[in-house]
Amino acid sequence: MNLKKYLVRALHRLQKGPGYTYKELLVWYCDNTNTHGPKRIIKEGPKKKLIWFFLTLLFASLVFWQWGILINTYLSYNVTSSLSIGFKTMKFPAVTICNANPFKYSEVKHLLKELDRLIEAALERILQPTPGNSSENTSAPLNLELWNQIPLVLIDEHDKDNPVILDIFETNQTAGGNETCSHQGSDNCTYRNFTSAAQAVTEWYILQSTSILSKVPLHERIRMGYQAEDMILACLYGAEPCNYKNFTQIYHPDHGNCYIFNWGMDEEALNSSNPGAEFGLKLILDISQQDYIPYLSSAAGARLMLHQQKSFPFLKDQGIYAMAGTETSIGVLVDELERMGYPYSDCTMNGSDVPVKNLYSQYNTSYSIQACLRSCFQNHMAEICGCGHYMFPLPEGVNYCNNEDNPGWAYCYSSLRSSIKQRQICIDSCKETCNDTQYKMTISMADWPSEASELGFVLYRNGIIKLNIYFQEYNYRTISESAATTIVWLLSSLGGQFGFWMGGSVLCLIEFGEIIIDSLWITIINVIGWCKGLKQRRARARWWRLTPTWASSTSPLLCPGMRRCPPSPAHPHPTMTLCGCSPSTSLGPTAMQRPSERGVLPAANHHRCAACHLLGKCLLSVKIRRELKALAVLSYD
Amino acid sequence: MPGDGSITARLKRTLPVRGPQAPTLSELMRWYCLNTNTHGCRRIVVSRGRLRRLLWILLTLSAVGLILWQCAELLMNYYSASVSVTVQFQKLPFPAVTICNINPYKYSAMKEYLSELDKETKKALETFYGFSEGKSKVRRSVDEWNSTGSNFFQQIPLLKVEDFSRTATDLRSGQKRKIEGSVFHKDSSIVNSGDSNDIIGFQLCDANNSSECALYTFSSGVNAIQEWYKLHYMNIMAQIPLETKEKLSYSADDLLLTCFFDGLSCDKRHFTRFHHPLHGNCYTFNSGENGTILSTSTGGSEYGLQVVLYIDEADYNPFLVTSSGAKIIVHDQNEYPFIEDIGTEIETAAATSIGMHFTRSRKLSKPYSDCTETGADIPVENLYNKSYSLQICLHSCFQKAMVESCGCAQYAQPLPTGAEYCNYKKNPNWMYCYYRLHEKFVKEQLGCQQICKDACSFKEWALTTSIAQWPSTVSEDWMLRVLSWDKGQKLNKKLNKTDLANLMVFYKDLNERFISENPANTLVILLSNFGGQLGLWMSCSVVCVIEIVEVFFIDSLSIVMRRQWQRAKKWWNDRKRGGSGKAPQASDVERQGHDNPVCIDEDLPTFTTALRLPLPQDSPLPRTPPPNYSTLRLETAFTEQLPDTLELGQH
């Protein structure tokens, strides 16, 4: 009995909710929702109902469409950039200074003696217009061992199809070429063509000298280069005097000894808080042009580069020249680009996610795209040629290439260098850094020392350089990225759209969810009712067959419309049997058809079955809805 | 009354109550305020007390005002752009590099055309500044001048001007004459040294009307003579056909000694000739003419373009150019190289290293900014065979104006169809005309600056130029020897290092910076912002707007119309009844609201239901009227039943 009571109460609680049927539920929802459209659907006449129904549908679909666009926009992770420009106290850039010539000629002369003699003789041969009056027989015999590894040849292309190739030491022709062979055999040779003899000679010399110098140990090479105290004559930072000891020495394969000011490796980086040459770095350098290697570098001057602290200077890429005998003033503007990492843009914060082993990390420097590209090349070279190129740091367990150990390296190197595939692999695997800093330089030059002051200078005018490096009036320009669409933006835009079209909010969505749960509940009730009904009908059908008299006697009480029921009044029967017969689904429509008979029902059964009374009431109340199924649940217990 | 009944019936027939079911405007308003979805209006109706009601009216109105203001702001800021900068690391297309010798034509080859002019110029310089030659010689030459009657000086006399007396001395004849017409100072008046008596200039006269003269003065004699020389030079050059001019200028073999690109050797076949009117033959590397554009996949000086140029300084025109070297410009393959405007000069006896950094920019065109995508919407014909740029537009515009007003085309710019270059055999008046026009152009009176717009997208190569000594003192010897050998047999003399210039153009890095503008707002965002504003101030939406339109315009109008119609009907009936003289009693129209039998319908309209509900004393806020739906009836049925059920449980 207690259970029944509880269930009845539960039913009543349910009734307080939106109702029994879908239609009721919908009407209730429309009337009570906070969303603007549905309310109007049920308010007015049929035409307006229709109009409002379609308007609401239209607005709802508009909202969903726009939401789709907004979410798509959010997921595309756009960024906006903001630009700021002005002057602030900033870290003074690291300044790398090198001589364009890597080694003092006086120091390396003994190593390059053979080579120089060879090239002189070759030049002699090239420049002599007529063969025969060659003079090399008078001088000491040439060591042709070097020559035979990579001979310089002349290629006569007057006849396009059959170019005539002539070794310079035999006779001469018109165009210069440079041959590199792999050591396997002469059939595996390539000729590097040059249209100018000057270039051919320079390239040839570089190849040969690289091979010779790579055998020299590093400390020896450092000794042969320019020393800080010889190169840096004077130094002034702001008002503070400085000297060569403030520079960090680094060995650069292209330029020999390079010196870095303010690298920030050991001590704090210097700040500069004033614009103008007065507060910058002033240097006087001596490049001693007399001691240049004649065939190696034809340009004379200092090579310098401004870069960030703790980054490796790639002078070939970013370096500039300072001419001898001039005062070069460099105004600096720091151009920074601060980007957001994944998923906003494809960049790397510190290079740890790049699949290339950074060989420059042995210098303790930070990741940069140049370092990545060079490491990538060197790794390929070590893999394919079996030795490392002299210009780049070595991977573990690999030695530098030289002609003795790796006779075919020059061929291997030049074919690798010109391989487009190799370059593309490196470009694809390297990523640029997210924070990109560039130093924009305004370079101006004047003759220095002037004719008048030169009297006081004992130094050779072609060998000294004055440098002024300072911040410009505006010393930074920062472009920083920020996400164009944040989650807050997304939410407010979604809310804005929903509000704009329908006046809705999150609560409206919750309301809608509630309605869905309610309708699910209704569905469950219906399904259970239907199943129960089916079961009951089956059971009754069986029962009917077994005891037809009993059934026929009880049914008219509840089923007055049924033809099968006998018209005679029934005998008193136990309540349980009554309840057993009641939930027949077929009763509903019949009850509906005869509303006039409803008064008979309670009157006849009142004293016998209270449950039947309830059922009758139920029948009465839900007659409009034709929903007798719900009763099945009730009667089940 | 039978009349009343018929009116009602007819009204009901002809005007079935739909839409505005309120009989009067005030009731409609009241209904609207109670039932609308916006928040403020309801408070106006339900508030008790005049002050509070007034307050709510004010608040609601100010909310409406705020919404309108904010939405207007949003609309006005709709066409704003946000900038995004992307950096891409990739293989970059190498730009076209155009190289010219500063001197346009070989002086030795030009001798036959210019000998006369040069002789005159030399003489002028002598008379003017009394160079090395003795006085007697000068006098003699002056005499000679007078006798021969120089062609050049007759056309454009060089004058020494005394500004205060407004007299000018003809340099040739020494005659003084009064200045007629206007005086133009070519130099800025600020720089003009006031006390200097030696202002030199030349006079240009309208050939058709000799009294129309303009005097151009220069504070420095060098400028005056160069300008004067240039005018004559252009005259002469205009008469020489293009093929001859190309022959007179430098060939690729003359200019380029060595070439090296991306680690490989290159030669003159990689260069395209391009004839520039002021710079003679220029050579463009990687012009893309044969369909392929070279690209770089490695940055750094080794992988760029390296050329050694032969600048034959001895063969320079002494009056036309006073500096020596080469001029280069880095540009896109589709762009016209305006070498005279934005070229970079290259020094001789030096290695110039130019590091490039590539930036691509893209602006949004109309309505965000006033730029043009292709230049097709600019009313100026593009005379250059290249893609649109502001420079091209300005030059074309000036050339167009020149052809229109002077009848011939200026020498430095391409020819429009059907025009030819000015020379004073055919157009004796052109110089005067040109100067006048140029004056106007500079002062923005021609309207070119207004017509021409920026291009929306452009590519820019930021250059970092630095110079090193080249060749170095120790390598000078062999370098010059080998280069002389490279130059070949036809050059017999040994090269001098001041005849050579080394140029390196390379990418500093392969980062391409792409600066693009994007619309800051899209329609979706605008609408959500509207929604945010409407929702914030009034909890309003489009539905509310539709409601407002419905109630305030359609319904109000139909109510007014209905009332007018009824009034007219009544008046008509009264007139028909006429003689009966019976004044109708309280008209049904004047009765209020639901008491009005006219408006009472079988299906009860919601507003009447709402109004019928009396306001309960205990709760000042009116509840939502109980809807007349079966749902509610059902609920009633169940509440009635509840005690029954409970009773049943007790049994």
From TrEMBL, chain A:
Topology in membrane: Multi-pass membrane protein
Top-level taxon of the source organism: Eukaryota
GO molecular function, one term: ligand-gated sodium channel activity
Keywords from the UniProt entry: Cell membrane, Cytoplasmic vesicle, Disulfide bond, Glycoprotein, Ion channel, Ion transport, Membrane, Phosphoprotein, Sodium, Sodium channel, Sodium transport, Transmembrane, Transmembrane helix, Transport, Ubl conjugation
Transmembrane segments: 50-75
Main location, first listed in the record: membrane
Catalysed reaction equations from the record: Na(+)(in) = Na(+)(out)
UniProt key word RNA-binding: no
Keyword Transport on entry: yes
Cross-referenced Gene3D superfamilies: Acid-sensing ion channels like domains, YojJ-like
Cellular component GO terms, alphabetical: apical plasma membrane; cytoplasmic vesicle membrane; sodium channel complex
UniProt-listed PROSITE patterns: ASC
Localization: Apical cell membrane; Cytoplasmic vesicle membrane
Family stated for the protein in its record: Belongs to the amiloride-sensitive sodium channel (TC 1.A.6) family. SCNN1B subfamily.
PANTHER family found in the cross-reference section: AMILORIDE-SENSITIVE SODIUM CHANNEL SUBUNIT BETA, AMILORIDE-SENSITIVE SODIUM CHANNEL-RELATED
Name the record gives this protein: Epithelial sodium channel subunit beta
Organism listed in the record: Malurus cyaneus samueli
TrEMBL record, chain B:
Source taxonomy: Eukaryota, Metazoa, Chordata, Craniata, Vertebrata
Membrane-spanning segments: 54-79
Compartments it resides in: Apical cell membrane
Entry GO CC: apical plasma membrane; sodium channel complex
Broad class of the protein's primary localization: membrane
InterPro entries: ENaC, ENaC_chordates, ENaC_CS
Pfam families the record matches: ASC
Membrane topology note: Multi-pass membrane protein
Top-level taxon: Eukaryota
Name listed for the protein in its UniProt record: Sodium channel epithelial 1 subunit gamma
Family: Belongs to the amiloride-sensitive sodium channel (TC 1.A.6) family. SCNN1G subfamily.
